[in-house]
Amino acid sequence: MEEDIIHRIFASSPEDDDFLPKTVEDIFNDFTGRRSGFIRAFTTDAARFYSLCDPEIMNLCVYAHPNGTWEVNSPVEVLPPNLPQPVLGINFAIDGMQFHDWLSFVAVHSDCWLLSISSFFSANARLTRHDRNRLFDLINNLTTLSEVVTIHHAIQTLFQVMTRSAYYRR
């Protein structure tokens, strides 16, 4: 069971069980796939994501996969050495925070996990300084998950205000 979870989290290609990204392009594709999964969880699937974060269950984590999917699951008991651990306990603060604040909190920690996964793959691939800089530039040109959540919330709020004002003008 744990080996299956580890494989789902860290396998970067469904076609090859032992594939670890070894080039800047492979690592960046892994990053963008996982980022897409988080974006889906925090925007389109936000209500479902929230409902899966039961505060009664200990130490839930959110994982995003290279194929753009995501899951909420308990942490793996023992990760292989050097593998970055996702943030534990995303569900602890769920009762004491506003929904958007909680989602922003989880997004910030997910940003950190994405960067740590990319750093792990970079070190594993023994990228040169030039390649690491190129990877950083590619990643840095994307909006962070935290920014996506904030922008999405602002758009939703604006839409609600516009809808209400249109309703009252009738």
UniProtKB/TrEMBL annotation:
Instruction: Tell me a GO cellular component.
Output: nucleus
Question: Mind listing the GO molecular function terms for this protein?
Answer: histone binding; zinc ion binding
Predominant location category: nucleus
The Gene Ontology biological process terms listed for this entry are:
chromatin organization; regulation of DNA-templated transcription
The record ties this protein, via InterPro entries, to: Alfin (IPR045104), Alfin_N (IPR021998)
Per UniProt, residues of the Alfin N-terminal domain are: 23-150
Listed under subunit, the entry gives:
Interacts with H3K4me3 and to a lesser extent with H3K4me2.
This chain belongs to which protein, by name? Answer: PHD finger protein ALFIN-LIKE
Asked whether the keyword rRNA processing is assigned, the reply is no
- State the function annotated in the UniProt record: Histone-binding component that specifically recognizes H3 tails trimethylated on 'Lys-4' (H3K4me3), which mark transcription start sites of virtually all active genes.
Keywords associated with the record: Chromatin regulator, Metal-binding, Nucleus, Transcription, Transcription regulation, Zinc, Zinc-finger
Q: Would the keyword Methyltransferase turn up in this protein's UniProt record?
A: no
Matching Pfam families: Alfin
UniProt domain comment? The PHD-type zinc finger mediates the binding to H3K4me3.
Q: What is the lineage of its organism?
A: Eukaryota, Viridiplantae, Streptophyta, Embryophyta, Tracheophyta
- Its source organism is Cardamine amara subsp. amara
Q: Where in the cell is it found?
A: Nucleus
Family to which the UniProt record says this protein belongs: Belongs to the Alfin family.
Q: Determine the domain of life of the protein's source.
A: Eukaryota
